[in-house]
Amino acid sequence: MIVLPSKKEDILAWLNLAREVEPLFGPMADEESFKEALIQALGEGNAFCIKESASGNSPIYGGVVIALAGNEIAWLAVSTSCRGQGAGTMLLAYAIERLDHTIPVKVVTFAKGVIEGLPARKLYWKFGFRDWEPAGKNPAGFPVVLMVRESS
Q: pTM (2 decimals)?
């Protein structure tokens, strides 16, 4: 598996990934605002995906979007078929390398006690993120928290 900058041609694969994780994140793939934000991230070079290889139109096994202005991980998801194989670790490491290490890196993810969010929380903890403050509920109704990784 390899992490690559995504291209606009990957949009359908991204929307398929979004559909797969909607039970955890809430409606996305058919939401115009999500599509517009994704197209913008693709155009700005802030969306990265994990594929089997760099050649051809292989499927996307996961994706991450960063927001440089907020120095944050804006979106990260791994396909069910690829979970537990290091894809999330590869995506998060790739994304963090592209953010500013001199200021904290932020991400909103599942709150403590959300069983479905435990793998995501463990991943962020592994990279030094810590709970900062409650952030309400995500569109799927799960409690979420702002996690912060202090500057290095």
A: 0.90
Q: What are the domain boundaries of the chain?
A: 2-149
Give phi and psi for 28, each to the nearest 5: -140, -55
C-alpha angle 20-75-147 in degrees, rounded to nearest 5: 125
Q: How many CB atoms lie within 10 A of CB 77?
A: 25
CATH of 2-149, one of 3.90.1150.10, 3.50.30.60, 3.40.630.10, 3.40.630.30: 3.40.630.30
Burial class (CB in 10 A: 0-12, 13-18, 19+), 33: exposed
Instruction: Kindly state the tokens that stand for 2.
Output: 């390899």
pLDDT in tens, 130-147: 999 999 999 999 999 999
CA distance 2 to 31: 29
pLDDT tens digits, one per residue of 48-67: 999 877 666 677 889 999 99
41, 47 contact by CB (below 8 A): yes
Q: Residues with Cβ < 8 Å from 122, sequence gap 6 or more? A: none
pLDDT digits (tens, 9 = 90+) for 93-107: 999 999 999 999 999
